[in-house]
Amino acid sequence: MSLFNNKKLNVITFLTVLCFSFSAWAITLDDAKKQGLVGEDSSGYLGLVVQNADAKSIVDKINAKRKAQYLKLAKKNNLSLAQVEALAAAKTIEKTQAGHFVEVNGEWVKK
């Protein structure tokens, strides 16, 4: 194997390890909730309690998935999106663990 191929292999290996490292650094939803970065808001979605780039990324991804599911449920049950969001908000807030944040009257409070 030539010197060039060895260097190329080393770079590829390094980049692969680096990519896996980034995923290990990423914060999970559970971590974000435990750290008080995100909470369940009154509209059926996650909200940012504290501005944080990693938490915002999680919130955006999960909220997009939630909205897609809410739209499916609304269509299937002949409800409006707002009705499904309200039902989901009540359920997620009810199920939120003690010590995690929920939105009440526009304010973040620990449950």
How is the secondary structure organized here?
Layout: H1 3-25, H2 29-34, E1 38-40, E2 46-48, H3 53-76, H4 81-95, E3 101-104, E4 107-110
Parallel strand pairs: 1-3
Antiparallel strand pairs: 1-2, 3-4
Helix pairs in contact: 3-4
Task: Considering the chains and any ligands shown, give keywords for the structure.
single chain; 111 residues; 4 helices; 4 strands
How does this model look, in words?
Helices cover about 60% and strands about 15% of the residues. By secondary structure, the chain is of the alpha+beta class. It has one domain. Strands 2-1-3-4 form a 4-stranded mixed β-sheet. The radius of gyration is 20 Å and the shape is globular. The model is unreliable at about 15-25 (pLDDT under 50).
In short:
The chain has 111 residues and is α+β, with helices and mostly antiparallel strands.
Number of domains: 1
Low-confidence stretches: 13-25
CA-atom Rg in angstroms: 20 Å
Number of strands: 4
Largest sheet: 4 strands, mixed
The number of helical elements comes to: 4
C-alpha termini separation: 62 Å
Which sequence of strands runs across the widest sheet? 2-1-3-4
Structural class: alpha+beta
Average pLDDT, all residues: 84
Shape descriptor reads: globular
Approximate helicity band? 55-70%
Order of helices and strands: HHEEHHEE
Strand content: 5-15%
